[in-house]
Design a protein that fits this description.
This protein is α+β, with helices and mostly antiparallel strands and 509 residues long. The protein is 37% helix and 24% strand.
Length: 509
Amino acid sequence: MMKIFGGGKSDHPMADLKEARRLLGELPGADALGALDEINHWFDSVRADQEFRPAHRAALAVLLDEAAQTPVRKLGREYLFTPRLSKPQENRLWSVIHGFWRNATLAFVGCLESFVTGAKGADDLKADLPLLTVRGLRALAAQMKWSHVRYGPVDPQLWRMAAGSYSLAESRRFASTAVTVYPGIPGESTADQEFLRVLMLSASSPDSLLPAEIELCERLIGHFTSRFVLSREPRGETPYWIDLAATSPPLRHARPPLDLKSVRYFGPGDVLGEIDAIERTIRTSGEVPARLNLGGSYSPELVLRVLEHVAAYWSPAPLERKHPRHRVKSRLSVAWGFDGILDAISPGASLSFDDSHLESWITENVSAGGMAAHVPQARGDWLRVGALLALQPEGGSNWLIGIVRRVSRDRGGEAQVGIQTVSRAPQRAELHVQVGESVSLDTELGILLGLDDAETPVEILLRPGVHVPDQNLVLEREGRKVVLWPEAVRERGADYELINCRVLAGRAA
């Protein structure tokens, strides 16, 4: 508990801690959005009051942060796991959640900065520096996470705050001091561990994950944090480094740092072996082992996918590109979404296409497996990891099919995207569903990604819900009936399913 003996002469409603607790106790428990919105207003109000001494300001930051934990967790789950949120709902939830973590970051880091600069009364914070630093770094990591959820830029000032907060912990020799982060919630943490949360999230390439995967990645980091390594010297298990004197994110050793005392090395320690064992358990049993504490229930498929992702990025060996890249600057016509792509490769096919599904991008580089592109201004908010695209290079006549694998946006709304090419010769396909010997009369439209011969497996794009287990798909090709047996759903997006199929038969129609 903070030892506060008064809040100065301010007439602010929270100038008295007892009154502040009463006000926070009256927050609407059944209305998480309203409660968090009110907490954000209190943060703004407290920050604007110049009469509060540093210790009182710190005590209020602690109270507001604790009052927000239940509603912010509830709203986070609602944002990430509620299907079909409307755009206004999604924007409102994100703004309130991100706004809270921003406010908490500013409050805690502001207290630490007042101590470093020797503000009047800041010496009263000395006993509480470990807690304030842990809370500040925890809030900062969450603010970064919610920026990644929308593929937005991470403010360089957040790296300044993170490095400065941790540098204070090092210089005052409390970086390894364990504190209870929140009362009533088991578990302790240290400035070392909270700084590693910030660093390891950045090292996990969150810009190539879906929002729910980013959330799970953060949970995995929290589970393994105590086993991560932070060192002044490079080791085999510390493939990344950060300069505490800079305002930039961490980098791999592939770009060696200068020999500076401000450089720190970090990495996963010995957790890669544990991750491998958990992956084997999930593949064998189809269940997430109980020893993996994720603070919630997640599907085995999602957990396995994110485990594979983090293992690749946490490995001491950097990922190798399968294909060399070549710098190319050219215009690129882009159609997006299942209907937009269908009309691009077969005009008029979807009956619902309009030119709002067409955009003009600029390629940055290309390879046999895909390309990187610059997006001057995406219309709407459809651009995210997993989005389906049709791509036509300037001067070309054919369309490629690609899937967005990486997105990062700058403050002006422009984006850089990484695209995996999944077909260079897509074709519209008119399909009929076959159950037993019966074939439906209704036609379903799909996008065939390649069908060369009866011996080669084929992939096809369908609208969600068209594929049903134990049902085959029938199409005609060059006067022959071709039967496709769907073996597995390779990937799902907002408006498509990518199905792996085996060719069962082909005979004269």
